[in-house]
């Protein structure tokens, strides 16, 4: 049986993390090890997690490395310890007992599968699908959309990082998360890099996850909006044939939508995030 490392990233979210860890105890897959990464929490997360689960390894980062950077710390540790698969799981989730078994079975069915995802449901609306594994990117409109139903593999451009099983060999070939993405789009970027190297993406329909979504910062956090748009600019600069089209259409479209809804603050932070990323990219080119 393949050895799986389960990585949970925590940032000021110990309550969610403890609930998630409790649900993992019910998994029907036996060959796994849990590793919690604390991304420099400013609350008492470390104390609570250590007290509740003293036997689970806890790595404490000395600064917040973002989602990709924080996960990379865990991935490196898992690979050093010989894991065959790494399951990245958001700490604000709860899983069904068969969640991991279903993903491993799908991945083991074809050695070309580099990553497998789950069917995610909204925590506050348990019957509503949040993402059927992942989604697709529209390079004309500059946006990504999660699928809420099964789609052909050629429409599955990425798997969401909220529940993502990664094959060790695939990571060894394409590399880990690009840490230039502090938050958002890093899973999309990884999906594109995997596919460009010939790896397949798959969805384990028997792997059901309930996800709070944006629990750390809140769904309408200005910081979330800035990171999302900054990362969108970075993603399209890496993967679009004509980056200016999705950059311009995507950012302006999100700004117009916010203004129509009367949300000036959201529009401003959309522009701030995109502008900051463009400025950083320009400065690096001029060095």
TrEMBL record:
<protein>
    <submittedName>
        <fullName>Putative glycosyl transferase family 2 (Rhamnosyl transferase)</fullName>
        <ecNumber>2.-.-.-</ecNumber>
    </submittedName>
</protein>
<dbReference type="Pfam" id="PF00535">
    <property type="entry name" value="Glycos_transf_2"/>
</dbReference>
<keyword id="KW-0328">Glycosyltransferase</keyword>
<dbReference type="InterPro" id="IPR029044">
    <property type="entry name" value="Nucleotide-diphossugar_trans"/>
</dbReference>
<keyword id="KW-0808">Transferase</keyword>
<feature type="domain" description="Glycosyltransferase 2-like">
    <location>
        <begin position="6"/>
        <end position="174"/>
    </location>
</feature>
<dbReference type="GO" id="GO:0016757">
    <property type="term" value="F:glycosyltransferase activity"/>
</dbReference>
<dbReference type="InterPro" id="IPR001173">
    <property type="entry name" value="Glyco_trans_2-like"/>
</dbReference>
<comment type="similarity">
    <text>Belongs to the glycosyltransferase 2 family.</text>
</comment>
């Amino acid at each position: 049986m393949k050895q799986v490392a389960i990585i949970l990233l925590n940032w000021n979210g110990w309550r969610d993390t403890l609930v998630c860890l409790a649900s993992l105890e019910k998994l029907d897959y036996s060959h796994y090890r849990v590793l919690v990464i604390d991304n420099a929490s400013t609350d008492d997360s470390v104390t609570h997690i250590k007290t509740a689960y003293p036997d689970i390894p806890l790595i404490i980062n000395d600064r917040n490395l973002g989602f990709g950077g924080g996960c990379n710390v865990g991935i490196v540790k898992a690979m050093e310890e010989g894991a065959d698969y790494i399951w990245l799981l958001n700490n604000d989730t709860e899983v069904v007992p068969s969640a991991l078994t279903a993903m491993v079975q799908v991945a083991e069915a074809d050695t070309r599968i580099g990553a497998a995802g789950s069917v995610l449901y909204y925590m506050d609306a348990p019957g509503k699908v949040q993402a059927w594994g992942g989604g697709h990117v529209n390079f004309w409109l500059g946006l990504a959309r999660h699928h809420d139903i099964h789609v052909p593999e050629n429409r599955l451009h990425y798997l969401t990082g909220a529940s993502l099983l990664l094959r060790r060999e695939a990571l060894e070939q394409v590399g880990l998360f690009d840490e230039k993405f502090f938050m958002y789009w890093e899973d999309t970027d990884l999906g594109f890099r995997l596919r460009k190297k010939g790896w397949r993406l798959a969805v384990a329909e028997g792997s059901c996850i309930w996800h709070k979504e944006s629990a750390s910062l809140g769904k309408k956090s200005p910081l979330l909006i800035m990171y999302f748009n900054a990362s969108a600019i970075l993603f399209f600069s890496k993967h679009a044939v004509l980056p200016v089209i999705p950059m311009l259409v995507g950012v302006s479209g999100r700004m117009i939508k916010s203004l129509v809804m009367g949300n000036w603050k959201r529009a401003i932070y959309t522009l701030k995030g995109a502008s900051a990323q463009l400025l950083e990219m320009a400065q690096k080119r001029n060095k």
